[in-house]
Amino acid sequence: MTATTTPTAPAPALVRVPAMALPTLLLFLAALGLGAGATWLALEGLAPPWLTLPLHVAAMVALFVVLHECAHHTAGRLGGVNDVLGRIAMPFVSAVGAFPSARFLHREQHRRRSGAHLTPWNLHGPRWQLPLRWMTADLWHVYAYMRRSADRPQAEVAEALAMLVLLPGTLAAVIGTGHGGELLLVYLLPQRLALAVAGWWFDWLPSRLPDRARSYQTVHTRHPNLPFHRYRRAWRTGPEPEPPAPAVPSPRPAPEAEFRSLTVSTVRPLTDRAVLVGFRIPAALRPEFRFVPGQHVVLRTELDGEPVRRAYAICSRPEEAELRVAIKRLKGGRLSTYATTELAPGARLDVLPPAGDFTLAPHPREARHFVAIAAGIGIAPLLPMLSHALTAAPRCRATLLYVNRSGADTLFSDDLSRLARTFEGRLRVLHFRTDERDPDLHPVRSARPFDSIGTALAISYEHYHAGALDGARLRSLLAGRLHPAKVDEWFVSAPPELADPVRALLAEHHVPATTVHREQFRLS
């Protein structure tokens, strides 16, 4: 098993969403205030319709901008702020729509890159129809969503149906009381005009500008998760840098003299197919074997007269005296088979000093969120990385998605539980078990009722899910707790069958390539 590392690059500050986007909140409050003031002037007869109507339209266009920010999760990283603001703004933008379904359709537009930003409905048809299409874009959204509702979550569909009945029913009741004229003046007509302005501004006008024009659409296409108030800065930065070239295997160390003969101090079983191997580092070699969490070493020995060497991630922490690596027995793996069946304390192996740049070293004052995705032995570099980062930077937090067949195959399960408890919520671990018979998925209930109640009420930072981490599950996480706007950097340490789809899905959700780091283990 050899390590391939994607170079680590700092996350660009440009795409980092603040905890609460103050300009978005101020725009939201100003729009509500403007709309309320215009409604009061209109209903009290203190201003003519030609004055109040533009005020209502301006307020609703501003709320449309807020709604759009919330759909991209750029109103802030605080939990629920985008859902709350989005749901409040939605009835002012559309009388028939629901925020979760609108968010889904809009992000689908970005993924398909069909040429239209809001909806293809705004660009097709004869020119004389376009204003009418812009004013009825929300009706097209309802039609498009209902066609796909069978594949959407039940709660999302239920909310869409509820809003489709509740708000039009309320409007019908208001009209039935004889206030249809006022409703048309302060709500229905300005809402249709605001949709027309949005369709013209967000879809029709950008389609008529040159490709390299410094427009809203140009920046938003490049940085869909960028708050609107940072667009001017994005214009000044120029085009987004090209993604880094695909990772290539680190070159094998050539000079034989670089290897050092070290004594195996411990061999501890991790599972029935994996062991933890520790090396005693002589004082004279400690500067040479100083490492950063996430790096690896190359082990070399002679088996049946032939030299064999493989790279293994370091599992120990820098402050520990012993250097440890995890080795899992692989089919046809000569060194891994030897290490898990014959290697014993006292043996000597040639070890190349630590190398690799799959590392994590946040500044102590930073407040960042890291997501690590591991499968099987891929946890080896991530365990010391997360432990060291959360210890060194008390304001940082991390989420680990860890895929295994069962608890019996899970490496460092006790260490992960201990770390999750130690960091008290700053480290959350989501286990995915492909063997649905795994006991961790079916905890035994205590015969004592108070014990069961205590267990139910206890705070747990580890959660277990039956099945693999597939595309549907990862999409659901990216739409909620792990939305790209809430995550600063991603670390993937898994075989290609998991790592490749994960990176493709992150790219599909416009996660900057510079924030995704990969340690790929190639079996050989």
From TrEMBL:
Residue ranges occupied by any FAD-binding FR-type domain in the UniProt entry: 257-361
Keyword Membrane annotated: yes
Transmembrane segments: 20-43, 50-68, 157-178
Essential cofactor(s): FAD
Pfam families hit by this protein: FAD_binding_6 (PF00970), NAD_binding_1 (PF00175)
Keyword vocabulary terms for this entry: 2Fe-2S, FAD, Flavoprotein, Iron, Iron-sulfur, Membrane, Metal-binding, Oxidoreductase, Transmembrane, Transmembrane helix
Entry superkingdom: Bacteria
Keyword Chloroplast: no
Protein name in UniProt: FAD-binding oxidoreductase
